[in-house]
């Protein structure tokens, strides 16, 4: 998924969050008014751009344009004017237009905030995300993935903050989606190895669902340990058997919890990235050992198509003997 499309998905999933962020300094910023996502196809020779989002709050339209680079044909300033004319013709209401540049780039084109030609001048707002304070983005769940693109002197610290904030999101589906978006957007600025290091080990393994599964595994291990301990205790001494059984049970439960956690997160990630998985892929993943699941978890960050998953599974037949 291209970076600007990730942002479009975020804006259309959390329209109120974007409106509060970008219209917060206006007297007519959205309060309790519902935010409506407008269609991106406009009348006349239709323009349809994946990275364009139109939000309507009350009597104002917020036009968002996400760009990784300022290069465009026609040029961005003219495109923004063209959108304004078409929006104004159709809706006849105030329009706030914002270009959000995602990728740090040393270009004067990212400084341009108006269209000028003879007697015509049209202004709009430009946000260079790499100059933005990450604090308000970190504080808002809907904007969290954008925080990876904000200003920082320590990439590792910023990515860790984002990973930790994602863990605080209550709903599991929302948490997993935000985690996926944050990792994808981090690719705009940071090396893949750093992204893996922070998100795979900090966020995915410490996520709420992983901890729930891990705790379930531990509890199961305790129960099995008690049962096994009682059986061994009758044969070799009750106290010694219980102790040994508990230890083995805890270890088995911990192993099982980690394995189930890895499987769950990998299947959720792949489903989000490529859609519903064929049953054969789900079956193969279910039979992978824990070391193989960990290897797949690292490898899938580089997968671009479902064929990459198929090749990986063919090269790594199941070793699970549990």
Please tell me about this protein's structure.
It is a single chain. This protein is an alpha/beta fold. The chain folds into three domains: 129 residues; 70 residues, no CATH class; 108 residues, no CATH class. The chain is 54% helix and 11% strand. It has twelve helices and seven strands. The strands form two sheets. A five-stranded mixed sheet has the order 1-2-3-4-7, sandwiched between helices. The chain has a two-stranded antiparallel ribbon with strand order 5-6. Strand 5 and strand 6 form a beta hairpin. Helix 1 packs across helix 2, helix 5 packs parallel to helix 7 and helix 9 packs parallel to helix 11.
What best-fitting shape do the alpha-carbon axes yield?
Answer: elongated
Distance between the termini: 36 Å
- Strands across the major sheet, in which order? 1-2-3-4-7
Rounded average pLDDT = 80
Total beta strand runs? 7
Helix count, DSSP H or I runs of 4 or more residues: 12
